[in-house]
Amino acid sequence: MPELPEVEVTRRSFVDRIASAHILALQLGKPLRWPLGAPAASLVGRQIWGVRRRGKYLLLDLDQGLLLVHLGMSGSLNFASTQPEAGPHDHMDLVTDRGVLRLHDPRRFGAVVWAPSEDSPQAQKLLGRLGVEPLSGQFDVTAFAQALKKRQMAIKQVLLAGSEVVGVGNIYACEALFMAGIRPTTKASRLTKPRVARLHAAIIQVLNRAVEQGGSSLKDFVSAEGRTGYFQLEAAVYGRAGEPCRVCTTSIKSMLQGQRTTFYCPTCQKP
Fold this sequence. Notes:
This protein is of the alpha+beta class. It has helices spanning 4-18, 121-127, 141-149, 155-161, 170-180, 193-212; strands at 23-28, 48-54, 57-62, 66-70, 76-80, 90-96, 99-104, 111-115, 253-257, 260-264. The mean pLDDT is 92.
């Protein structure tokens, strides 16, 4: 599943090329997770002012309203001057005078939704419960510690929920917890301020490094320029069950948490 770094890498790979473009057509294929919310023809002539990211959503700001795009579990965007004929898994072509933005999504869990504004009910239904952006100045360590004190869930489950800090998905939660030396099953409320501070720093460091490396390409992910990511090649624990820890040589373990596979080092990561 594309996580925050992959979505940010995608945004950066086409934002400059699509900025100021005018929409010529919006062509939709099979239904996605949610309906568009407006007639596709009503977007013709609209100008794209820019592309932002909120959590795992891309927000295409228009001169009237905005488009919210989510990549779902297996989606990717490609922006090119022209596109070949749409295949069975190509579900959106946003045709502009600067190129065509195509959404490819084999599992159709992605979405393209129009909203009149970011504050509108349509947008807030998707964005309203998202936590703080981890790569922004709003991600405050003191507030993070106070929020975790109120949570009785395992810390990894809190990170994946996205209500305290947004966009830390499975891969990067595993990696940040390893870097911070925290066992994924530890209750969030039990973490001391120093341990929360280490986790706070680790989240920022891991996500920034992943963006630098172009994200993680485990199966389908490519940027809007068609480039794969390389972060998975340097992962400390994710996907390495049975292999020696890069720090202590203990065998990396795996387990299921909330239907997601967790990877951790039983020696380096303390309860």
